[in-house]
Amino acid sequence: MEEAVLGLFPVTAEVKDNHLLIGGCDSVALAQEFGTPLYVFDEETLRRSCREFRQEFSSRYPETQVIYACKALLLRPLVRLLMEEGLGLDVVSGGELAVARAVGFPLDRVYFHGNNKSPQELALALEGGVGRVVVDNFYELGLLEAEAKKGGRHQEVMLRLCPGVDPHTHAHTTTGAVDSKFGFAMEQGEKAVAQAMASPHLRLSGLHFHLGSPIFEVEPYQEAIRLVLGLAADMAEKSGFHLQEFSPGGGFAIAYTRERPAHPAAYYAEGITRALLEGLEKHGLPRPRLILEPGRALVGRAGAALYRVGSRKDIPGVRTYVSLDGGMGDNIRPALYGARYEAMVANRAGEQPAERVTLAGRFCESGDVLIKDIFLPRVFPGDVVAIPAMGAYSIPMASNYNAAPRPAIVLVKKGRAELWRRRESYQDLMALDVD
Question: Is 364 a catalytic residue?
């Protein structure tokens, strides 16, 4: 086992008696008790990540609010934990909003995003008292105005801008470039601000952008901040626009492999707040509240997946396939956009690599491969394979392809495991069918 791989797991991960432990729990015992595939989340890592982002940004820019991007992972017990940590929520659908409401999350700390919110979703947001609706386009501006008028309400809004900055991520996860379905183009910004300010039922509080994810460098944020603050200054002069809130979105990277380490929160905090303060001073703008939207950066490292090894297929001179009991049904990221991971044999975690294998999934697609050509100790049927940095996007994008039940999820802390989501049953798979 290499220490560099162990460092990709939650902060409590350790090797003891040749087994991988997370949160003081033996991962092999967890696989036995709860079955596999199994997603394991470490409470210490979750809380530490929340506190790190809040501290690093607020120490440099006190007027900061950290809100969690729910699309990375959404569970009612997780929302309760985030509420305890003082975070807000970034939701993108009526369903995500419903989860927040179900646990009594304070809706004034909820920001409602999305490029095609339905009238029903906007009405739900207005009725519930959502703190901000982040408006994505002119159609939505008109729709929200109509819904607010119908309900006799006034709604705080931010405008999402598309600054045309390439964050150098995968094309499927780039959202701030010119050719994007998200946000107002910069040349539309002046018209959008004027229209929002003229609305009798909407109150424009700020500007927002989100460049994509995962973003490993701070320079794209800094370039976009300069562009958007320039627009804010122009609109302050032309129409008296007062920038009360400003959001550079999220997209902060985590480390998935040894070859590409990620920067800590302090790196992003230093670069973003410095660019913001310099821009405000340049344009003579008062300090707005800074809104950060980490998702992956809060939950990604906190989660690991456990799989049971099944069959092996040796193709002499070509490749050895080791099949796991999960795959693209619970983690489509490798098949969707070539995501790469590391792995460990959890029941022989102290052993050195002895063979090169490809970890394949169980689903009926040739592209269902979790990790291609990885060096591991000799792998046998029945072994437990642990994959780190699985806490973000795997579960939300999970499916029931091949009628496979979605995995259970547990939270671990100080040697105890708490079931956060039970494994789906075959009966669950048929629960919505109409006979």
Answer: yes
Let me know the angle formed at the C-alpha of 178 by 176 and 184, rounded to the nearest 5 degrees: 75
Tokens standing for 384? 């437990």
**Is residue 224 within 8 Å of 174, Cβ to Cβ?**
no
DSSP 294-324: -SHHHHTTTEEEEEEEEEEEEETTTEEEEEE
For residue 100, what are its two tokens?
A: 């927040």
User: Could you read off the pLDDT of 36-71 as tens digits, one per residue?
Assistant: 999 999 999 999 999 999 999 999 999 999 999 999
Model pLDDT, residue 170: 44
140-161 pLDDT per residue, tens: 999 999 999 999 999 999 999 9
Q: With H, G, I as helix, E, B as strand and everything else as coil, classify residue 208.
A: strand
- The rounded distance, in Å, linking the Cα atoms of 70 and 80 is 13
Phi then psi dihedrals of residue 80, to 5 deg: -65, -40
User: Residue 263: CB partners within 8 Å, gap ≥ 6?
Assistant: 216, 218, 253
CA distance 167 to 210: 10
Q: Quick: pLDDT tens for 127-144.
A: 999 999 999 999 999 999
3-42+300-429 CATH: 2.40.37.10
Give me the residue label for tokens 């550079």. 248
Report the topology of domain 44-296: TIM Barrel (3.20.20)
H or E element at residue 88: strand 88-91
Spatial separation of the C-alpha atoms in residues 410 and 73, rounded to whole Å: 13
Domain boundaries defined on the chain? 3-42+300-429, 44-296
pTM over 0.90: yes
Residue 172 pLDDT exceeds 50 = no
| Cα–Cα nearest to 386, from 398, 374, 396 | 374
- Mapped onto helix, strand or coil, the DSSP state of residue 424 is coil
pLDDT of res. 192: 96
Q: Would you say 351 and 17 are in contact if contact means Cβ atoms under 8 Å apart?
A: no
Residue 311: count other Cβ atoms within 10 Å of its Cβ: 11
Active site residue: 25, 70, 162, 364, which one?
364
Integer Cα distance of 387 and 349 in angstroms:
12
Is the confidence at residue 176, as pLDDT, over 50? Answer: no
Report whether the peptide linkage leading into residue 214 is cis, meaning its omega lies within 30 degrees of zero: yes
